[in-house]
Design a protein that fits this description.
about 220 residues; alpha/beta; Rossmann fold; DNA polymerase, domain 1; 2 domains; 9 helices
């Protein structure tokens, strides 16, 4: 078992911007359906219900998201929006990576002092492509792309990499994915809130165990360097 301190670091909205691109597409999607006399509230609710149902099967990422959009337009008899949806899927997949504040300066310092493992959920090809575009891959000792972040996921990561839970921290912006299940698996946790969070990820941080609350990624250097 490794006694080296290990930091498991989330990717989307922790290392780089992600949710804003989906929000921009949703805004355009609602506007386009509005011109076809579909009320915004109805579209939002239908999309939420569709995503909640589909995510258990399709997982996360632009492809799963756009599949839900296509399902909504079929339900609303608006197939003319399908080419627009496919165009937006390509846009989400290929946009330039915008790093979160403090990441570029802090990650090399964390790498020098700790073992770093990128732990993100989604489709492997999409997440690995973002990592490549970010130029951050050199700072990670390992990369794990998982379908979901559950207590079992963290237990499997602990076993696979022979981690000591007392020396391992999960760092991320989602209470539901990054904080609560990691705490339940016995890991330390660091919560760095993002200015907007997908509704699916909203959850109160459980009171059991301590969670370090930081305002930005750069503050990690004060605790782990």
């Amino acid at each position: 078992m490794s006694t080296t301190r290990t930091l498991l670091i989330d990717a989307d909205d922790t290392l780089w911007e992600n949710n804003i691109y989906f929000e921009q597409v949703i805004t355009g999607f609602i506007a386009k359906l509005g011109t076809l006399s579909h009320p915004a509230e109805r579209v939002e609710q239908l999309l939420w219900e569709t995503e909640q149902r589909n995510v258990k099967v399709t997982g996360y990422g632009s492809m799963a998201f756009c599949q839900s959009l296509e399902e909504v337009v079929r339900a609303l008899n608006a197939p003319e929006l399908e080419p627009w949806i496919r165009e937006k899927q390509q846009w989400i997949q290929r946009h330039p990576i915008e790093l979160m504040p403090g990441v570029r300066e802090t990650l090399p310092r964390l790498h020098a002092a700790n073992r770093l493992i990128l732990l993100t959920k989604g489709r492997a090809e999409e997440q690995l492509a973002k990592l490549a575009r970010s130029s951050l891959a050199q700072y990670f000792h390992a990369v794990e792309v998982v379908f979901e972040k559950s207590v079992q996921t963290y237990q499997e990561i602990i076993a696979k990499h022979r981690l000591a839970p007392s020396q391992t921290w999960m760092i991320g912006n989602s209470p539901r994915s990054d904080i609560n299940p990691a705490k339940a698996a016995g890991l330390g946790t660091v919560f760095i809130p993002y200015h907007t969070t997908w509704q699916h990820e909203l959850e109160e941080i459980t009171p059991d165990g301590a969670t370090l609350m930081l305002e930005n990624f750069g503050q990690l250097a004060d605790h782990f360097v």
